[in-house]
Every structure is written in C-alpha cells, then in structure tokens.
Design brief:
alpha/beta, 11 strands, 9-stranded mixed beta sheet, 11 helices
C-alpha cells in the first residue's frame, strides 16, 4: 500500500499558522495567498485523517494533537534546514547565504564597523540580517528561521554552541551637571533608583545591567520605558535621569553632541559577552567559528585604530 507523507511546504504552512495565529498573517509570511495556505492545511489534515486546527471567525485554535504535530513539524523543518546546511558546508566556507539575527543593542553600534571588513574578506558571502530582541532571536534560531545569532551573554539560549567575540563593559551615563558628581568609577550603591532609566522588557541589556548592580530594589523602582538606547540617551540629555550604556554604543559615538558623561560601573560582572550562537551539532559550526574569528579580529583592529 502506498504511503503518502506530508510535504515540507504543508509543514511550513502549519508552523507559520502556529507562529502568527492568523491565516492572513501566516499566508503573508509564507509568501502565498490565504486560500493557498488554507488549502495546503486542509490537504495535510485530509492526508493525516485528523483535525489539527479549529477554525472560527475570531480565533485560530490548535487541537491537542495539532500542538503535538506542529512541535514535530518544527523539528522536521529544522532537520531539513540542517540537511541543506550539510551540503552547503561541503563547498567553500562562508559563501552563499547566511541568515543572522542581531539584537538592537548591538546591531547599530557594531555592524557598521565590522561588515565592510567582512565583505572584503568574504566577498561571496550573502549575509541577511534580522534585528530582534534576544528572546525572539533565540526562537528564530531554534525554529530554523536564521542560521546563527549575534547577541549578548549570559542569556538562556537553550541547546546551542557559541563563540565569544569580546567583553563589552557597562557604563553609567548622567548629565554633566549632575549634582552628585559621580566619581571616576561608579559603584552600584551610588545609583539613585528613582532616577534610573532602563530599556523596556525584552531587551537583555536591562537584565545584564540589573544583575551587575545586584540591587533588587532597582528592578522595582527603576523607570523602565526606553525603547532603544538612543531614546535613553535623549532622556538623560534632557536631565530626566541616568542610565546604563554598553561600551560599544559609547565607542560608536552615541554620546556625541550631548551633555552627558559616562563612567565605568565598578561591580562584579559589570559587562556582557558579545557572542555568536548557533544550534548545537550544526554542520556549519566551523563556518560560524570562522565568522566569529573574522568579527573578533575586526573589532580588535577597530579598537586599535580608535
């Protein structure tokens, strides 16, 4: 008896629906019409002889079995991606397409300095960048949407391997006329929690900064409504408070044309590790290590030039 198996396209449609929770958005993400996606999912259900998705006008709800099937679909699609990676890695390293997620507290400050050198060294590499916060970047990695991610550690990233590029120190930034006149190195106990401005939830830099300060009351008292480091800098420049900034942002000139002073935070773990992560046992691991070395070297050369 002939056995018919689900196609990868059908599984991609199922995963897209689970991720977006809406047929229209899932179809848009899959670059097909909504009717095409719906037909593909109905074919999948007919093939399996079960209902995977309950369809109503207001909500898309997966059945208990549908949840199990979509979890398996994620793994199958990831394995298919790794099969392609295996073939690709057998050719010339760092050539062809490579998809990388980068978090917002790294992307605008580091990539403009490093990408030109990477293009010169690896002209056949087609690097596609995706900017997203750490949790979304890790999810994209494990779901196979990207091949690797550039983010800051420590962060709970699951079953991954990584290469650290460099250590990024944390600084306290405050207006030049701050009445407390902080010393050359600022200890956490000198930070006024009523004036502390941090990034909103979702940005791992907020957690790194709070962990470095090791003051539980800061998490409850800090005013956390900055959507980006540039927003926080503007707020500090308008004397609305003080904040914590990574060294790469300062080196990139984020404080240029402002009346802000930045001094190192003097505390245990007052830094974060900038690293590339990838799925464990990826056949492209050697390529990612090679990429890490190129970026590590580019960063060191940039520091020397600066």
């Amino acid at each position: 008896m002939t056995s018919y198996l689900p196609t990868l396209k059908q599984l991609q449609y199922l995963v897209a629906l689970e991720e977006h929770g809406h047929f229209g958005k899932a179809a848009e993400a899959s670059y097909v019409t909504q009717s095409t996606l719906s037909a593909g999912l109905r074919e999948l259900e007919t093939l399996l002889g079960v209902v995977l998705v309950e369809r109503t006008r207001r909500v898309v709800r997966f059945t208990p079995l549908g949840n199990k099937v979509v979890a398996k679909a994620h793994r199958i699609l990831r394995e298919a991606e790794e099969l392609s990676d295996l073939v690709r890695s057998s050719g010339k390293p760092l050539s062809g397409e490579l998809r990388m997620s980068v978090i917002p507290t790294i992307a605008p400050f580091l990539l403009p300095r490093l990408l030109p050198g990477l293009r010169r060294e690896q002209p056949e590499l087609k690097l596609f960048l995706r900017e997203e916060v750490s949790s979304a970047a890790v999810e994209s990695l494990h779901h196979g949407h990207v091949d690797c991610a550039l983010l800051a550690l420590p962060f709970p990233a699951g079953d991954v391997e990584h290469e650290t590029l460099f250590v990024d120190a944390l600084y306290v930034a405050f207006p030049k006329d701050d009445p407390r006149d902080p010393p050359e190195f600022v200890r956490p106990e000198l930070i006024d929690e009523s004036r502390l401005l941090l990034l909103e939830d979702g940005h791992c830099l907020k957690d790194h900064a709070l962990a470095a300060c090791n003051r539980p009351e800061l998490r409850a008292s800090a005013m956390m409504f900055g959507t980006s480091l540039h927003t926080l800098v503007q707020m500090v420049d308008n004397r609305l408070g003080l904040t914590l900034l990574p060294q790469i942002a300062i080196d990139a000139g984020i404080l240029n044309n402002t009346d802000i002073v930045a001094r190192p935070l003097l505390a245990d773990h007052a830094s974060r590790d900038i690293a590339i992560i990838w799925r464990k046992n990826s056949p492209r691991a050697d390529e990612f290590r090679m990429l890490a070395e190129i970026l590590r070297r580019g960063h060191a050369e940039g520091k020397c030039a600066g």
